[in-house]
């Protein structure tokens, strides 16, 4: 099996991958980064979303070998260096943006992608950007609220606690 | 998925060379092909990845024509400002993560009967440029789209570029099938100085088609009212659990009127 290399969450890594090995399998099985989830495996749910060279992609719909040499960020890379929750993750906790948490890695990665390009999104823009992320239990309301709160925090604004 | 080799050529010439191998197939963004492979509906010997070929990526506008290279992503098309109607179409394909990977060449090569881009290509009279071992061919959209998942593309050829004459005004209206997010019916209206193009996707049993009556009516009176008196026949339209042919016929007219209104 060929060996491939990439940078994942700032660290150079390498591992074995066949042509057909999906990026999500490489991350989870070869690198042991199981924070990235597989919800549907049919490109619909977004639980597997990671960033490749700064853009959100469905890791179940990309081959690992296509990410050779790329900068990959997974949910494990979203925490602060001391291990505490990053701003978006903390906002999900504060706003009850998750219940079972299965969809949450993908939600957080999509939110990070949105906020990088649009630091002050409207509620409508957040909802539209979540089009490819399905949640089966929280309902989208608190997820949207979490992302708007994270955006406000990142802009340095105080958010009124409820 | 069955096993295959993933080949990553650096140039178009290398890609064409690699595609001459037995059972070789191009890999664009993989947003259609990878789900197909997972269902074991395809068994390629090798996949030739186009994403890393610099000469196959990019958008440029000159002389009233927008040129989009084959491996350019939907996201990049959505971000360009020279042809707003096409940007609007691209920005509604799937979701952000799909748009970061999926490519125009992949969509045009696949010619799914519900794909969005073929409607823009047909309405604008685009030229599809394809390259293979015998050189390059330029194919008019009217000759290129030949039915469900069928095009003028030959085995071993790559869609390298799509050239769209940029309309004076244009708009795409998509009535989404909410589960797949593909259009149940999509209509692209393109207004040029001397003609109007109206192309319909998601509805035809033979894939994308011109709504010729609307093109003629709108050429002399470019307003939603010009379409009002027309009727779309349900003959030759798709029927499935999502919509009957009659419902699709109705939607074609509604979407066309909305697209014309949005052009104003
Ligand atoms: C959740 C979801 C929602 C979607 N919604 C929509 C939608 O609303 N509208 C829409 O139009 N599409 C939609 N799509 C499909 C998406 O646009 C695909 O990106 C597109 O159809 C195929 O492009 P690709 O680059 O991913 O091609 P691939 O999947 O890589 O390839 C598709 C086919 O084209 C061939 N191919 C690829 N590139 C080339 C080339 N340059 N030259 C010749 N052959 C080539 C491949 O061999 C394969 O047969 C959706 C997909 C998903 C997963
Ligand atoms: S697991 Fe990738 S989209 Fe659902
Ligand atoms: S929190 Fe359970 S699926 Fe979203």
UniProtKB/TrEMBL annotation, chain A:
Annotated 2Fe-2S ferredoxin-type domain residues: 2-78
Keywords: 2Fe-2S, Iron, Iron-sulfur, Metal-binding, Oxidoreductase
Cross-referenced Gene3D superfamilies: 3.10.20.30, [2Fe-2S]-binding domain (1.10.150.120)
CDD domains: fer2 (cd00207)
SUPFAM superfamilies: 2Fe-2S ferredoxin-like, CO dehydrogenase ISP C-domain like
Record's signal peptide: none
Molecular function, one GO term: 2 iron, 2 sulfur cluster binding
Protein name: Carbon-monoxide dehydrogenase small subunit
TrEMBL record, chain B:
InterPro entries: CO_DH_flav_C, CO_DH_flav_C_dom_sf, Diverse_Substr_Oxidored, FAD-bd_PCMH, FAD-bd_PCMH-like_sf, FAD-bd_PCMH_sub1, FAD-bd_PCMH_sub2, Mopterin_DH_FAD-bd
Domain called FAD-binding PCMH-type: residue spans: 1-169
UniProt cross-references to SMART domains, sorted A to Z: CO_deh_flav_C (SM01092)
Name by which UniProt lists this protein: Carbon-monoxide dehydrogenase medium subunit
GO molecular function, one term: FAD binding
One matching Pfam family: FAD_binding_5
Sorted UniProt keywords: FAD, Flavoprotein, Oxidoreductase
């Amino acid at each position: 099996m060929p060996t491939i290399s990439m940078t994942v969450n700032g660290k150079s890594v390498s591992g074995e991958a066949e042509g057909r090995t999906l990026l999500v399998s490489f991350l989870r099985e070869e690198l042991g980064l199981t924070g990235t989830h597989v919800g549907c495996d049919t490109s619909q749910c977004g639980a597997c979303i990671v960033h490749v060279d700064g853009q959100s992609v469905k890791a179940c719909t990309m081959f690992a070998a296509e990410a050779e040499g790329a900068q990959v960020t997974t949910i494990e890379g979203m925490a602060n260096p001391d291990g505490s929750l990053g701003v978006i993750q903390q906002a999900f906790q504060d706003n009850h943006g998750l219940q079972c948490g299965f969809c949450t890695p993908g939600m957080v990665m999509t939110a990070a992608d949105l906020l990088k390009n649009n630091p002050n999104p409207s509620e409508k823009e957040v909802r539209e950007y979540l089009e490819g992320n399905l949640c089966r239990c929280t309902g989208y309301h608190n997820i949207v609220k979490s992302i708007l709160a994270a955006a406000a925090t990142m802009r340095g604004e105080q958010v009124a606690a409820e | 998925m069955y096993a295959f080799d993933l080949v990553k050529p650096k140039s178009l010439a290398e890609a064409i060379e690699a595609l001459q191998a037995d059972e070789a197939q191009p890999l664009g963004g993989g947003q259609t092909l990878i789900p197909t492979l997972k269902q074991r509906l395809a068994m390629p010997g090798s996949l030739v990845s186009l994403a890393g070929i610099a000469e196959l990526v990019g958008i440029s506008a000159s002389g009233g024509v927008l040129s989009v290279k084959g491996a350019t992503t939907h996201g990049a098309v959505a971000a360009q400002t020279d042809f707003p109607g096409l940007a609007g179409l691209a920005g509604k394909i799937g979701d952000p993560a799909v748009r970061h990977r999926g490519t125009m060449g992949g969509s045009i090569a696949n010619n799914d009967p519900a794909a969005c881009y073929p409607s823009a290509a047909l309405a604008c009279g685009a030229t599809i440029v394809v390259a293979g071992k015998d050189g390059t061919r330029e194919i008019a959209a009217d000759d290129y789209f030949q039915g469900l998942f069928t095009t003028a593309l030959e085995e071993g050829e790559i869609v390298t570029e799509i050239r769209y004459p940029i309309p004076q005004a244009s708009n795409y209206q998509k009535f989404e099938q909410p589960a797949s997010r593909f259009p149940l019916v999509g209509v692209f209206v393109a207004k040029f100085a001397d003609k109007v193009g109206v192309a319909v996707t998601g509805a035809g049993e033979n894939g994308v088609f011109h709504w010729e009556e609307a093109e003629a009516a709108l050429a002399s009176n470019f307003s939603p009212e010009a379409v009002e008196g027309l009727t779309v026949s349900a003959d030759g339209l798709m029927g499935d659990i999502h919509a009957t042919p009659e419902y699709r016929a109705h939607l074609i007219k509604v979407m066309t009127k909305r697209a014309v209104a949005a052009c104003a």
